[in-house]
Each structure stands twice: as C-alpha cells, then as structure tokens.
Write a structure and sequence with these properties.
By secondary structure, the protein is an all-alpha fold. It is built from four helices and no strands.
Length: 97
C-alpha cells in the first residue's frame, strides 16, 4: 500500500498504542471472504499468528503490514487492488471516528 501511494507513514511523538476495534476485523473478514471464499477467517488467523498478534491486541500502526500480508494471499491481481482499496477506505473511516 505504501509503495502504491495508498497510505503514508506519519511520525508522532505521542506513541499511544491504538488497538484496532473488533469492527475492523468483522469488516476485514467479510471483504476477504467475498474475494477468496470461506477460508478467509483461517487466512487472517494465520497471518495474525505470523505477525505474533491477535485480533484483540492488534495495533493500528501495524495495519498496513496486515493488509499487505493478506493481499499476498489473493491470487488475482485485480482482486488484490480491490481489496486494498476497500481496506484503505475502512482505515480512513476508523481514523475519523
């Protein structure tokens, strides 16, 4: 996402750890399920495990890594882009809440 200019990194002196809300993972699972089918929750679980985290403690600052890792699991290039766009929209909505 960063390489494609869809997200940018911002530094902050205030390092409060923001945990992604459960609603993020609900939407994430729904979107990924539409793209890769019913294995999506298992893929998400595997990626979270590989990132040494879980849904309840996943830091927002690591969301780009999560989305990039999940994107790699999508075989179709067009669907990869659609998924990334939807996740970017979701992250933007979360920022304004």
């Amino acid at each position: 996402l960063f390489d494609k200019g869809l997200i940018r990194y911002e530094s902050s002196d205030n390092k409060d750890e923001v945990i992604l809300p459960a609603s993020f993972f609900t939407t994430l699972k729904g979107e990924l399920t539409q793209i890769i089918g019913p294995v999506a929750p298992l893929v998400i679980e595997d990626v979270l495990w590989a990132l040494d985290s879980n849904e309840e403690q996943f830091k927002a600052e690591n969301s780009a890594t999560l989305i990039e890792s999940l994107t790699e699991e999508i075989p179709d290039e067009k669907k990869k882009l659609i998924f990334q766009q939807k996740m970017l929209e979701l992250l933007k909505r979360l920022e304004t809440e």
